[in-house]
Design goal:
Elements (H helix, E strand, L loop, with lengths): L13 H16 L10 E6 L5 H12 L3 E5 L13 H9 L4 E6 L4 H6 L6 E6 L5 H15 L6 E5 L6 H10 L5 E5 L8 H9 L3 E5 L4 H6 L2 E4 L10 H7 L18 E3 L20 H19 L8
Parallel strand pairs: 1-2, 1-3, 3-4, 5-6, 5-8, 6-7, 8-9
The structure holds phosphoric acid mono(formamide)ester.
Length: about 300
Amino acid sequence: MNSRSLVAIDQIDKQELLDLLERARYFEAHPNSKILDGKVVATLFFEPSTRTRLSFETAVNRLGGRVIGFSDASTSSTSKGETLKDTIKMVSNYADIIVMRHFIEGAAQYATEVTDVPIVNAGDGANQHPSQTLLDLYSILKTQGTLEGLTITMVGDLKYGRTVHSLLMAMRHFHPVFHFVSSEKLKMPEEYLEVCRREGIEYHLHTDFSEDIINKSDILYMTRVQRERFSDIMEYEKVKNLYTLHNAMLANSKPSLRILHPLPRVNEISTDVDDNPKAYYFEQARNGVFARQAILTRALGIDNLPL
Ligand code: CP
């Protein structure tokens, strides 16, 4: 495995996270340059994406690199039966780094085992989404001025939502208090609750999405119910509309509260929230370009930035 690969957020320690956030801050101030001149980045998306793929590609284009890849695996030789191993080995002949999203948990880890080219996990099934986490951390830091000691409420699909898993693992370094709001069937997996217990992190489980919880929160992290992870669509229908944030629910929230969502949104944030200054999800997605510039340059060993 190339040591510069980014497969899971927990492979990065607290100092490295802070270093990546410093890089992201640098790239927000200097988004355009030629530091990836001559580099080829492959984006292999075996699952649909708007933000992750386009922000990675924007990140590369703004830094002078080139992008190859596919956004729909049915147009690749995967559709002829080529294995993931062979696909990764082939693309490794062409690219300096591979950004991949795959529906199988562990696919990015597997890819690191068949190539020496750095792999960046752009989401593997319900497991992790580390580049999303970096932009989430960057968004939290920008809006709160700190990552330390925040009350973070995660709402929705905490079972299949890979972004909340990665965010929990990253925020554990910064003494948070977590509120997890979900139905019993979509609750935060036990392995992540166990991490909280082991590390002495305060957390509370809720099935009601009450204004009392919103009013305590510094960050309200809404998530979509992940329809594509349900084998029984009737089970999805039962839970898809359980939690929707409406503007009126924010009336007594902290002035500094910010509402995040990895997007896409379905119906878990009413559009009447969009004009509230506490809504931050569109700016959050914009931060993805800078966070991904940070990840790509680190993975490519570009360490001479004037930070
Ligand atoms: N947040 C996120 O992963 O969005 P996309 O699925 O559009 O990439």
